[in-house]
Amino acid sequence: MIKFCIEYLRLILFCSGLLIGIQVPAVVDQYEKRIDAHLTEALQILAGFQQTADRYFNGSVQNLVKHYESSDDPVFNNDARNIRYISDRVASLQAEAQTLQQAALWRVLHVITAADKQIIQQTMEQYSYMILIDPQALIWGVICGFLIAILLEGILHLLGYCLLCFTPHKHRKNT
């Protein structure tokens, strides 16, 4: 009966790991879509300033910002900070979008280790669990299922071994 339960425990661990692993590419996908949405919005906000830069500063938004900064008008100075922020945000989001064009493993590692903190937080807060049925998701699922099952079973065996080793035994007396 115990062996029967252990086999089901292995199956449950594997299936749990499989379901967790399938979420990995789904999180990356939702993060990537959120980056794209933020980039599209930032480009739209920057578009009017870019037109002014194209018309008067050979397309250089940085020169437009310098022009605004050199003005004695506090409104222009304030706008310079806003334009610089938008321009920097566009550059940051473009770099993030470019990074997410790498191979699947590198995208996952990037999202885990170096994702935009604000956007990954938004992604996780609004994440909707899903089961992607594509080769990448299935591979992640099987690998995670296998690793979680092996890891937890190893821990359980280690605990069982420790319990056997440290349980006091009654010694027989040889007569």
Automatic annotation (TrEMBL):
| Domain of life of the organism encoding this protein | Bacteria
Q: Where exactly are the transmembrane stretches of this chain?
A: 138-166
Q: Which UniProt keywords apply?
A: Membrane, Transmembrane, Transmembrane helix
Q: Does the keyword Transmembrane helix apply?
A: yes
Pfam families from the xrefs?
DUF2937 (PF11157)
Please give the name of this protein: DUF2937 domain-containing protein
What is the protein's species of origin? Paraglaciecola arctica BSs20135
